[in-house]
Amino acid sequence: MSKPLPSASGHFRRSYADEFRLIETRFAKAMTLVFAVFLIGFPFVASPFYVDLATQVFLASIGALALMLLTGIAGQISLGHAGLLAAGAFTAGILYKETAAPFWITIPASAVTGAVLGIVFGLPSLRLRGLYLAVSTLALHFVVVYLGGEYETRRGYSTGILVDPPVVFGFEIYSPRIWYFVLAAAAGIALLVSINLMRSRSGRAWRAIHSNETVAEALGIDMARYKLLAFVISSAMTSVAGALFAYYRGFVSIEAFSLYLTIQYVAMIIIGGMGNLLGALLGAVFVTLFPYLIEGLMSALPGADRLAGSVFAVNYAAFGFVMILFLVFEPQGLVGIWRRVRNYFLLWPFKHKALGGSS
Amino acid sequence: MAELDVSGLVLRFGGLQVLDGVSFSVAPGELFALIGPNGAGKTSVLNCISGIYRPSAGSIRFDGRDLIGLKPHSIARAGLARTFQHGEMFRDMSVVDNLLAGRHARFKTNPFAEALFLPTVRRAELAHREAVERIIEFVELERYRHAPVGGLPFGIQKLAGFARALALEPKFLLLDEPSAGLNRDEREDLARFLLRVKHDLGLPMIWIEHDMQMVSDLADRLHVLDYGRTIASGGPEDVLNDPAVVSAYLGTVE
Hints:
Chain A has 14 helices and 4 strands. Chain A has 359 residues and is an all-alpha fold.
């Protein structure tokens, strides 16, 4: 993806390679370093509660990036996200319970399960669009959840499958701090893979298909192939996120994968900002932290004890309300807000960009 | 030997007869203008050639190969690039990205290598970026390179669409009213580019056009459609003075 020239004085691109460089300016380099130091230092200073929150954000980021590639970039609406997370979690859980398979087998296995399901989820996309596609993926969500539930009852794990901490190179991944780093690395890999796809021909093919299928076909882009590819890659990523979730929680139960989970992921990409990878990350942070924020606010209110019973209801309502606010007032999501704030500082003391300049 | 050979093309949508036995062939390097009043079926001919419509009867051969039944992307891959009447650009993508997307079929990278951005992918991206830059230079779009196409003036968008078709490195160009919506300056630029494509690249073109001045100045041969039928064919002088063509455009005196 060719990026616009960053607004930095004295910065020039000297080669085509500069156009797809990940970090361009010295300022961006410094900021990245500061952020990396913050991420590494965070679990050593924060309380276990906040470390757990951050770990949840990393997990959500992987799923949100996967859904962003599929829906925000390639334009294929899917409501099967919770089903795919469940498929990954159950693949890992079942393989572990039945064959005691180690971590390095269960994780690739759940990626394969996800990829295969991706083809199944994706096939309707060759014929259906928009709402109809959404409904067909929703049907598959229920099939996956049903199969998971059947396994639980048949094998007598009706309360869920217990998964022991994974052992890697004879080292047990157990402490929250280790999990924080493992999932941070996983989210980092997911982000890098997404960026790489976006700056090469698959990403362009997806954006082209999103923009106009007929035109993309007429220009030589094999629509069926790239739609299925989007489903396969997105589903494999999601499924791995599901498996990591199973290990992190140490427990897999089908109740965790309700339709509400799908809605949360869809909310992440809408609130974050459609069609933008940074949006997926911002959305993951927002949606993961939001319920805790509401809970915190409510406990700070006078008469908090009497409100305790309605925390869940208020949470749902506030969540829906925030989503509507974003759709109406900021369709570009948190990314749009981020851009405005950034431009304010970049242009200061001026208010508007120069007309006709390269944006 | 004809480069593209269309014969007996029939296209029906239910009871609506859009094309009724259209036949023509385009010679190598020829600038072939397809003209006719609104609704004559010009764009339908183009859509049949590029595989978007499937004709009810007739044959379309390109380079000795039958195109009927091929998917649009295979037809593009065979070397037939096209533009669209209304631009139809990928609006959120920059000019460079639009052109790189138009060049999609010339890439040989696979998604696994792309996910890791292996050196092969990096090299391919750089080589194609350079090729795209040459086309940007050719159509003089340098100042719009990184601008999202959706925000550009319509004339520039049309020109970018022309560039996107060239980016495929085609053997044959299908141009659907490239001058529609362009102002006089832009039309003159377009005429210049058409001649350069013809003389420098030697590309044969089917060119749908309403501007008769441009057509008579530039086209080698004209083919006139009216209500899906061929009413005249030949050199600009003869065709534009043909009574059937005049009456199709202007009507007849009762």
